[in-house]
Amino acid sequence: MAGKVWLVGAGPGDLGLLTIKGREILEQAEVVVYDRLGGEGVLRLIPRESEAIDVGKRAGSHTMAQQQINELLLEQALQGKRVVRLKGGDPFLFGRGGEELQLLARHGVPFEVVPGVTSAFAVPAYGGIPVTHRELASSVHVITGHKKEGERLQLDYEALVRLKGTLVFLMSVFAISDICQGLLAAGMESKMPVAVVQQGTGAAQKKINSDLGNLPDVIRKKKVQTPAVLIVGNVCALGNELQWYEKQPLFAKKILVTRPKERSGTLSGRLRSMGAEVLELPAIRIERLQENHGLEKELQRLSGYHYMAFTSPAGVDLFFDELKRRRQDIRALGSAQLAAIGPGTKKALEEKGLLCALMPDVYDGRHLGILLGETLKMGERILIPRAEQGTPELTEEIKKRTQAQITELPIYRIVYENPSPIIDVKGQIERGAIDLAIFTSASTVHGFAAALPGLAFDLVHAVCIGAQTQKAAEALGMRTVMAEKATLDHLVEACLKAAKEPAWQERAVDTEGGR
Length: 515
What we know:
Helix content is 33%, strand content 21%. It is built from 19 helices and 22 strands. It is elongated, with a radius of gyration of 28 Å. Residues 506-515 have low confidence and may be disordered.
């Protein structure tokens, strides 16, 4: 039985510009045939269990010929698989999507097309350039600038000039001199405003403003790299007035988020809203303990505890999931008072309909232990559902202050994640392409180190949520900034502070060419 192929447009790079349907289809794929133009954030959505095939379509470098790609899609679909062909931008705009589908159609293989946001419009928009404007341009025309090596670009330049609209050239970096000469020879004014937006919608975005006559010299001096979009027309004069992306507080910053996948969304969203390009590299995974006999025992006598202390949102979720699996609910807790290590854990309890009675001013195990030790009376019983590898400081501080009965209940373990081979994180750090790495626990630091053996960790500028996390990062030689409090708000503030530090700015200048 034949499978099915989805031709999915990944957009110009920014994860937020991937369509909802595109994301839904991608996350259900069994096979993903991809190139590198879709953006790393999109590539990170490829399921780990899927077979990911890099067909390597980049400017000047194709690891697989187009006919081979067409045949690969057919072969995988005929094996009954759900196949996603992931293409940058929109698959039907100079994406050769039609060619790929023709072979499928001839063999009766079902397919769907999921349009994508095209770089022809998105990249100028991120550069503050409206491709149409009532007073400046009533039409826009998208033209391929791709040419074979050693050949001139064959375009009807006189017709393009007569259109008097905005001209947007894709895949044009190696043909910009030819395009400028052709338009000038066809009568376009040498002072016509033009712009080139390189690597648009991401941290490496750069905009070059010029006029038609001087652009070839300017791009040679600026060493423009692919991918880039060339815009020709009077609308380019609005680029500085209407720029917005460049004004974001974290514009041009690429930030690595190492939180577990299920916990990274809110933080990543906050950073992206401030203009950062976010690369999610979960360093750890939360894994429920199987055949947990201690858990079975304690769930039968929950009502006998005076206090329960939670040390992470994951612990809260897993604990109450276990209750639900055994057809118990919050009534099983009896009159126990609840303690949380910090605001995130407190919020997780509140989402279960429970109020937190105790939370330390400093959000770590040691200070939670101090608070509990000063609160618990002799003989009172406390249950601590936590990670199998939980820090001993929590119970040590309780024992220093009171003779309460402490029951530690491991309910999950922290597993270090292996990095996806699709994205070369180590190479990017070594090139200076990643500006900051965020760590929300000592475990994420250790998982990160395990995932990237051989990395020179002094190249990492780490933003740490607390003292224990900072200590782990500094032990590896990382340069660190610590959030004032262990909250997402303060973590984001620490990122803003780190991005403004002179030491970081010097490194950013030194490595600019490697972005």
